[in-house]
Amino acid sequence: MQKDSIKASLGDFIIDLEQGLLFLNGEETSVEPKVMELLLYLYDCRGRYVTVDELHKHVWADRVVTDTAVRGTVKKLRVILKDDDLTNPKYIKSVAKRGYKLVCDTNILDSATVSSVEAAPIEATPVQDSIPIEIVQPTFEPQHKKQRNVITWGVFAFLLFVICSFSLYLNLNDGPQFAGEASLTEFNGDKRGIAVSSDGRFIAFTGRHSENEAQQVYLLDKQDGTTRKLTTKATNARFLSFAQNDKVLVFSDTVTGASSLKLLPLTVSEPESAMVTLIEDKYWVSDVITGRTESEMIVKVGHNAGSVLMLYSLDLESLKLTRLFTPTHSDEFIIASSVSPDKKRLVNVILQSGKSSLVIHNFETQLDEVLITQNELAARAVWLTNNDILLLDGAGLHIIDVNTGESKQVRDNPGALIWDIAASQAGHDVVAIRKSQERANRLYIERALTSTSEVSRLINTSPEVTSMIFDPMDENMRWVRVKRNDVNYLGHLNIKNDQLTTYFETEDKLELLAAATTNQHLLVKEKHRLAVFSMKSRQLEYFTADSSSSSDGVFYQNDQAVLFGVQVGGEWEIQKYDIESATTEVFVRHFKSIRPTKNGFVAANYVGDLFLLSPELEVIEPLGHRINFEAIARWHVKQNGVIWSNFDYLKSYVNHIDLETREHTRIEDMFYSLYPRISVNEQASHIVYLSVQINDSAIQQLYFK
Asked: Closest Cα to residue 522, out of 555, 487, 567, 476?
């Protein structure tokens, strides 16, 4: 006799705790395995809140997923439980920063109770005691008959395996196959954003031909091979898309703090003369794609500094903006998006904690599902069919099966030369921007921090040198980051004879932040973790967790410690890391970054506003300026002056404040001519920065069959 399973009531439902089954009114309810695992774990933890991190550890212990995936699974469970009133939940209550709790009544049920609830109502028939019971004797099959049955079933199982394998082979080869590529333009000028018309004939792109030129909008006609320049007055044209049956182009003029979205009619001879502004004076506007209808655009918008970048639906007729998709965690960033050919789903490339995820958003159910998560940083994802997505990352081009999540690489991408891809709405035409070289030719420029800001030195390096900081001990040496064949190195460069010595290598993203005054340690950020590189051990010593969000750091107390910013429970604080003992303690709360001065500190809050602090860490006064926390921006306090870089993707700016006189000066140049990753020497007399030349690029057609 089979032993009864342990069952419990969950409000109106009954759950079989051993078999993982859910019943409502005697009928089994279909539940996905991962959703059932979540329900069982919440049941085991009933009476208390369960954090998202705890769910990662216990329910998703077998794989790494984003917080979006966890919350999407919770949404699925709420749908099954019909728990749609979030203000008065019947089953699952959620509280920010505390997590989720099962709040419905739960009771263990005995077998009689379960039977009465689960059994379908039938008319009972009395049983008389006098009815004789017939006892049936068991029968036994001969041994040879059993063997014959075993053989028969074995053959059947083998044939079934062959059929399934052949069917799987057909399915794997049934999707799109990469068939080759061809150049549509020469390598002339820098190209950035790209879009394809619905019929594949026209290709729109943004670009420029010289370092001092702003990016404009261009239109390539594949039929006759001609290219038209559609704008001459765009401030910084960047992202674009066709709309309204290819009769118009919508593009973003992306300038941090003053971004706009504009429409170019393609039915007139001079489109710029009839240009319409759709959105203006936004902090950030980017990633323009065609929506579910011809009059809908999907665009990424940030309303102010520090706000989360969200996807909005824009109706081109009413100009109404409606929020469409929001990252669920503060360290999640939407990299790119694309709408499926049947207009039912949206794929988002999400960056979180150094990992890239493809998240499928269902427009009808409003549920999100993580398709894949990988360590390689993804740049773009476009739909080839309703079942296949083309993904571009540093490794190459991959076709992702939307139903299974299976990925197959169809083309490699050495040197990340393929910069961007785009597809027509039906996915039939795919084009790419291909750079002529991995990194553009460059110079490092040393410039005086004076009113004249004259250039004092030009340092000619190979394109492999991707960042540079001053050596605090030797004016002829520079600490550098070098990238070769997708590997990052920490090196020491002699700028007199170009001799380079490397000390450390990693395939992960690496930022060089500072050098100790004795040159015994370097402060770096590998992926999203802060670390000290020891010249003695030749190893990285991490002091932030893999799962934490950190800002930057600075050497402190004669290079014996590091002050750095870290987010704890949603709030920023400054912590101090002791290098010798490898211990960490809270230094000051409510700030994201800090620098020591001669008589105290300068600290920045979470949006970058600067404050002068006393030696006792009390706020003396706000300085009335704001720094930039983007990864390529830098800020320093040297010789009683605050120096920081800022940028708006059109230009870069280097600011200097004298803490005694409060005098403010600024140097500015085009964004790539003065790359904002600056370094300041110990005397605070000069800065060094990267100046990048044009990287010529071409447009290519990618063929799939």
From this structure: 555
- Does the pLDDT of residue 360 top 60, yes or no? yes
The sign of the dihedral angle between the CA atoms of 351, 356, 362, 366 is negative
Domain co-membership, 65 together with 196: no
Give a yes or no: residue 280 inside a domain.
yes
State the pLDDT confidence band at 160, using cuts at 50, 70 and 90.
low
For the chain, the domain total comes to: 3
Query: Is 534 exposed, middle or buried, given 0-12, 13-18 or 19+ CB atoms closer than 10 A?
Result: middle
Give the pLDDT score at 297.
97
Write down the residue that tokens 């290709």 correspond to. Answer: 203
Q: How far is CA 54 from the centre of its chain?
A: 22
Q: Does 160 reside within a domain?
A: no
* Residue corresponding to tokens 């060094």: 688
**Residue 526 domain-assigned?**
yes
CA-angle at 629, arms to 627 and 630, nearest 5°: 125
Q: Quick one: 333 and 467 in the same domain? A: no
- Compare 616 and 146 and report the one with higher pLDDT: 616
**Helical pair 33-44 and 67-80, crossing angle rounded to 10 deg:** 90
Whichever domain contains 324, its CATH number is: 2.130.10.10
Check whether residue 449 and residue 430 sit in a common domain. Answer: no
- Domain end call among 73, 91, 118: 118
pTM equals 0.70
Q: Which domain holds residue 20?
A: 7-118
Domain identity same for 40 and 189: no
Q: Are 514 and 554 in contact (CB under 8 A)?
A: yes
The DSSP element (H or E) to which 513 belongs, if any, is: strand 510-515
pLDDT tops 50 at residue 3: no
Do 274 and 265 contact (CB within 8 A), yes or no?
yes
- Is the domain of 379 the same as that of 447? no
SS3 state of residue 58:
helix
The DSSP letter of residue 32 is -
DSSP-assigned letter for residue 665: E
Angle at 45 between CA 43 and CA 47, to 5 degrees: 95
